[in-house]
Design brief:
Elements (H helix, E strand, L loop, with lengths): L1 H15 L5 E5 L4 H19 L5 E8 L6 H15 L2 E6 L6
Parallel strand pairs: 1-2, 2-3
Length: 97
């Protein structure tokens, strides 16, 4: 049910935006973004079977706030390799006031 609603929403969007060639997902590695990335990967794979290729890219921000931030980044990259999607990570330094 979740996938069918997700697919319907994206198909409706793509019907009016035929120029779209890539989906990007903000991906922290947490549960919510992991589910969103999986749904998106499944959608792109299914869409490619019908002849429309839309690439998928996961965007990750390594904010360094957790001592495990580098491990989260590595985990996210590994999942993207499994799904066959592009992975872009940026490290940021937050100013402390």
């Amino acid at each position: 049910m979740v996938y069918s609603e997700f697919k319907k929403s994206l198909m409706d969007y793509l019907a009016f935006n035929k120029q779209v060639k890539r989906l990007s997902v903000a991906y922290s590695g947490g549960l919510d973004s992991s589910v969103l990335l999986k749904l998106s990967a499944d959608f792109c794979a299914e869409l490619s079977l019908s002849g429309r290729n839309i690439s998928l890219r996961a965007l990750h921000v390594n904010h360094g706030l957790s001592e495990n931030a580098s491990e989260w980044e590595s985990h996210c990259e590994a999942v993207c390799k499994i799904y066959g999607c592009d992975f872009l990570s940026e490290k940021v330094v937050l100013e402390q006031n």
